[in-house]
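Here's a chain:
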Amino acid sequence: MLNRFLTALQQNIIAKGDGLFCSQVGAGGRTDISWARLGQDIERYAAAYREVGVTKGDQVLIFMRHVPDLYGSFFGAMVIGAVPAFMPPSSPKQDPELYWGSHQKIIEKISPSVIIFSNDLFVEAEAANLCFGSSRILIVEDVGAGACDWQQVDESHVGLLQHSSGTTGLKKGVALSFRSIADQLEAYSVSLALQPDDSIVSWLPLYHDMGLIAALMMPTYFGLKVVHIDPFLWVRQPDLLFREIERIGGTLSWTPNFALEHLALVNGRKAQEYNLNTVRAMINCSEPVKAQTFDRFERAFVTSGLRREALQCCYAMAETVFAVTQTAIAVTPARFCADPRSLNRGCIPAELAMEAGGEQLLETGSPIPGVELRFLDEAGEPLSEGVIGEISVSAPFLFSGYNKDDERTSQCLQDGWYRTHDIGFMRQGRLYVLGRADDMIIINGRNIYAHEVESLLGKLEGIKPGRVVVVGQSDPQTGSHALLVLAERAEGSTLADADLRTAVIRAVFSVFEVTPKRVVLYEAGHLIKTTSGKISRSANLKRYEERSIGNG
């Protein structure tokens, strides 16, 4: 007997037949993929895998761009008990040597049974002298017609790998069982009040947990329509998200905070051109959520029919498959104005009015069914309710460990609890996330969250929004940390560097009462991004320090 996920997949293929499974939007236009075609693709890829000797438990790495074969190659591995993982395709802005070099390390570490490439990426990999070891190679364009029986796969079996985003490659593979996947989807559907006629519109990459689970596994499991927009195309044409929502009457969409900022900045002036009145929930997820971002987005798109209560928040991670908390659908998320001086680990946040210098925090919701949260001090001991600490999660759909990395697993997964390294607190049953423990910089006893400083500086004239890195450097002179700011100049800015540095220093000191030790300005495009599109603090700090030593 097939497990719940594979049973649902098979039943949807049979029942929905020529009905729409997915519309894939790319540079060449829109491709509609039916459930019947999905079934055919699954069969032919499953047959191709079996032909080269793939068996239950073997790992399959998938290197493709935004093409229809993504789905068949992924689910085709699952139905024979193999374990697939989407890998991020290279982008024109990435250094090929760094990109393929990082994947060389992954291949050497896990020795996948099969690596499947679209031909263009295989040519790149060969040009970079990628060594495949014992892994067999399949080329998408060579996979022909075929049929293969679906295997009996127990729910305890690992169904897929999710990989966390790194600067140019991947850091760790999160192994998820079929049971965890189904349990997560069923629990999250309750918090979403999921409806049979819901439809999902997404620009998110499928190698990231938000895109993979919310925009692929969920609609596949529940038989919902979905639109997938090529992420690279979306960056150039962000209003494609709105156009596709309007076209199919989309009801659900997930997106990180930076994307809401980007949409408001680029498309806000054309809000009256879009009709977003079908949206039940546009869910801010994957990075710290900002009340100011919600306000800007709401103001920008008030004429588009988007309801205020449609803006929602979620706290999620690959290690719990996806969602941990979710704000109440159709209810405007709560806010809490806190005294910044009380937002230290081990403290209970104190309320303070905005006009008195309070910091407005936005909830990320209540735990979805089955989730338990507790908060830990620096020693890993549980704190009383309401006290700020490291968020620790227990759930029936918690991951089983990192792929072939027992040491990392034992550090993070202890007695059925996952230590997230995120800092937050509960208030009136709602979770507020302040940032990551490694996002926090302690300067002369003050706790400062890097993302808060970055958000502030992104609003300054002369600084390119979203292109700021704030990190703490050890300062032997003070025995504490010093604040380092790396920022890109806005295109077309006429401000002199000295004036821009002064503005940065003044802004940081005015809000956080800390003076940056150094402000480094770059031309647009200099700062390094992760595979999920975020600015990487660690990579940019490393490059800055390497060049500083080289110039020393």
